[in-house]
Specification:
Layout: H1 24-28, E1 40-49, H2 53-64, E2 69-72, E3 88-89, H3 97-104, H4 106-129, E4 137-144, H5 147-164, E5 170-172, H6 174-180, E6 188-197, H7 200-213, E7 217-219, E8 226-229, E9 234-238, E10 241-250, H8 261-264, E11 267-276, H9 282-288, E12 294-297, E13 303-307, E14 313-321, H10 329-340, E15 351-360, E16 366-370, E17 374-378, H11 384-399, H12 404-410, H13 420-440
Parallel strand pairs: 1-2, 1-10, 2-7, 4-12, 10-17
Antiparallel strand pairs: 3-6, 4-6, 5-6, 8-9, 9-10, 11-14, 11-15, 12-13, 13-14, 16-17
């Protein structure tokens, strides 16, 4: 139904960005030539807001279908979460599949699990098809910080094998995980060959190159200031011009800010943090992660780590709701790293950085439509590399009239965070401190 004129939003949005510390990914790679800023007026079938994985996947899949698509990014391609995350291709969702079954029913849970499997497959497919050099490496290991967690991982592996016919999962006891990781803190684990890790910034830039090669128009340093929704078309107002499109895809996630206020209540931005060591010798790296898999532990405020292609340990952990950063970021993460790997006490840490993730209340992604021909995807809750690519593909299919997968994802019920804009972060921070206490017990 078209919006009445009195309800058509004309919201002026002046995005402000605090420049975060330079990440290892940005420092290590030679930046490609920039895409130009938007200058003048442009018309397209679809306009995509956001140059991260969701937006790039949407633009690529639309362009491959022959749809006229324009993508605008307020900064550079991959500047946000897609270019500064842990690079872990995590199977499944941030929510446990057993809790998804309990809340949404077995049929929906099984559909979501198939989508999750498709998502990890899609990563490998796009990397191979478009020859993206992003050091994609197989293997994902969940490490149990308590004996009870190791027992639960065993139960999870059995559940997935029996109910979802998942093959290849390998539970590890304390002795076995000690053979995989050079750490004495873990009591067991679960090795999943369907996951893996990669250079996320290289993936984002490779997707951009593929989208542009397929015919998408990409514009950088082009923030959207206002969205004017109409009956048949929507107009985006930018500093250098305007875009008129039949459909608009909102793919800014935690970086969308107040551009579309009705989406804010469903997610909360949270800062997460990473460091990178100096390059390590081969003996040291093999002693840290024997088989070069991605690793995530079972803390509530989890640690996650992997090796880079130039033999650095990339170590992430901690979270602050509302986008706040801790003082002495590098010192905080260094202490967490040394608690896991005491042998790295003397390693130099040349890089420490942060980024925003968008957390949904049920830890499941939110996809949907808004009046004015708007599609959106957000709330990936730290499981964004694979699921964002799948979300972009699903949105592109929905624009083309193939709505099955999109409608299934859009039908997931979600609840807003309590407390409004001012109180959401303090309420969640209290919860974070409670779970931190549980991690210490």
């Amino acid at each position: 139904m078209p919006l009445p004129a009195m309800l058509s939003p004309m919201i002026e949005h002046r995005p402000t960005y605090r420049e975060p510390p330079v990440s290892y990914y940005w420092a290590a790679a030679t930046p490609p030539p920039p895409y130009p800023p938007l200058a003048g007026d442009v018309e397209a079938d679809v306009a995509v807001i956001g140059g991260g994985f969701t937006g790039l996947s949407t633009a690529l899949h639309l362009a491959l279908r022959g749809v006229t698509v324009v993508l605008v990014e307020a900064r550079r391609i991959g500047w946000g979460a897609s270019g500064r995350n842990g690079g872990q291709v995590v199977p499944g969702y941030a929510a446990d599949i057993r809790s998804i079954e309990a809340s949404l029913g077995l049929d929906t849970a099984m559909a979501l699990w198939r989508f999750g499997t498709d998502a990890t497959d899609l990563v490998a497919e796009l990397v191979a098809r478009h020859r993206i050099d992003c050091a994609l490496t197989p293997g994902f290991l969940t490490a149990a910080v308590k004996p009870a967690h190791a027992e639960d991982l065993n139960r999870l592996a059995d559940h997935l094998a029996r109910r979802y016919a998942v093959a290849g999962l390998r539970p590890l006891d304390r002795r076995q995980i000690a053979g995989h990781l050079g750490s004495a803190v873990y009591h067991g684990g679960l090795l999943d060959p369907s996951g893996g890790h990669l250079d996320p910034l290289a993936l984002a830039r490779g997707l951009a190159t593929a989208a542009a090669g397929a015919g998408a128009q990409l514009f950088e340093t082009s923030p959207v200031l206002r969205i004017e929704r109409g009956d048949a078309t929507t107009r985006l107002h930018l500093p250098g011009g305007r875009i008129r499109a039949t459909h608009v895809v909102l793919a800014g996630n935690a970086y969308l800010g107040g551009l579309v206020p009705e989406l804010e209540r469903g997610i909360i931005p949270a800062s997460t943090f990473m460091i990178a060591t100096e390059p390590l010798d081969d003996t040291t790296t093999r002693g840290l992660i024997r088989d070069n898999v991605a690793v995530c532990d079972t803390r509530h405020a989890l640690n996650y780590f992997r090796l880079s292609s130039d033999r650095r340990l990339l170590f992430g952990g901690g979270i602050r709701y509302g986008g706040r950063e801790p003082d002495a970021l590098t010192a905080m993460l260094r202490a967490r790293m040394i608690a896991v790997f005491p042998q790295l006490a003397g390693a130099a840490i040349p890089y420490g950085w942060s980024g925003l993730v968008d957390i949904s209340r049920n830890r499941l992604p939110q996809l949907g439509r808004l009046p004015g021909g708007l599609f959106y995807a957000q709330g990936f809750s730290g499981h964004g590399i694979a699921l964002t690519l799948l979300a972009g593909q699903a949105i592109a299919s929905a624009v083309a009239g193939e709505t099955g997968r999109f409608d299934t994802l859009a039908a997931i019920p979600h609840r807003d965070f309590p407390g409004g804009r001012q109180l959401r972060a303090p309420i969640l921070e209290i919860g974070r401190l409670w779970y931190r206490l549980l991690d210490m017990l």
